[in-house]
Automatic annotation (TrEMBL):
GO MF terms held by the record: SNAP receptor activity
Quaternary organization: Component of several multiprotein Golgi SNARE complexes.
KW Translocase (keyword) present: no
Protein name: Golgi SNAP receptor complex member 1
Major localization class: Golgi
One of the GO BP terms on file: endoplasmic reticulum to Golgi vesicle-mediated transport
Residues that span the membrane, as ranges: 206-222
Record keywords, A-Z: ER-Golgi transport, Golgi apparatus, Membrane, Protein transport, Transmembrane, Transmembrane helix, Transport
Organism: Candida tenuis (strain ATCC 10573 / BCRC 21748 / CBS 615 / JCM 9827 / NBRC 10315 / NRRL Y-1498 / VKM Y-70) (Yeast)
A cellular component term, taken from the record's GO annotations: Golgi membrane
Length: 223
């Protein structure tokens, strides 16, 4: 059976090892914002948990020895001190673990925000690119449409010019025909007199017809 001194020496060794692992755990906490090493963290926490469990077992052995041997006051003080150191080490570990978890949560939040911003930027770039393509297509369509309108306007103007030229040509032809007819009538004797008589007779017939119509209307009113 191990003696109090032997068990206590084992506890002292484990306490030194725990101090060393807590120092490494603290350094890991300080460097966590730069780089996260999951394997390193798992190794440190495993060593600390094993050390805590082993020290609790050894302290229980010292308690049982005290029950049978009635340890001296100095040994009881040593036992009490080992218990206090174990409690302190567990508190330090809990504080470091909580701080590390907060840093992880912060890093995860920053990563999530950064990812959302990148996704938003990517979607914005895609929309901007699509809008540029749509704008380019719109400009091309408008150019084609304007070109079509210009062609229609040009065709209408050309048709109007042709119509104007044809009217001017027909007008010139009519003027020429009228001039030739006048010249012909002037060269033929008696034609002018005959036309004058025809016009006079036409006016007379028109007057007679108007008189008859007026008389009929009067008869309808008074008869």
């Amino acid at each position: 059976m191990s003696t109090f001194t032997q068990i206590r020496n084992q506890i002292l060794v484990l306490e030194k090892q725990t101090d060393s692992w807590l120092t490494k755990y603290s350094a890991y906490e300080k460097n966590l914002s730069i780089k996260e090493d999951v394997d390193q963290e798992s190794n440190i926490t495993a060593q600390l948990h094993n050390g805590f469990a082993r020290r609790e077992e050894l302290i229980d052995k010292l308690n049982r020895i005290n029950e049978f041997e009635n340890l001296s006051t100095s040994k009881l003080q040593q036992l009490t001190r080992h218990k206090e150191i174990l409690i302190d080490h567990k508190q330090i570990f809990a504080r470091l673990a909580g701080s590390i978890q907060e840093i992880k949560n912060k890093n995860n939040l920053l990563f999530s925000i950064r990812s959302d911003l990148n996704s938003h930027k990517q979607r914005s770039d895609q929309r901007a690119s699509a809008q540029d393509v749509d704008a380019h297509d719109y400009i091309l369509d408008e150019s084609v449409r304007v070109g079509g309108f210009n062609d229609i306007a040009n065709n209408l103007l050309a048709s109007a010019y042709r119509t104007r030229d044809e009217l001017m040509s027909q007008r010139g032809y009519l003027n020429s025909a009228q001039s030739r007819m006048s010249n012909t009538l002037q060269r033929v004797p008696g034609i002018g007199t005959l036309i004058s008589r025809i016009n006079t007779r036409r006016r007379r017939d028109t007057f007679i017809l108007a008189t008859v119509i007026a008389a009929c209307i009067l008869l309808l009113f008074f008869v």
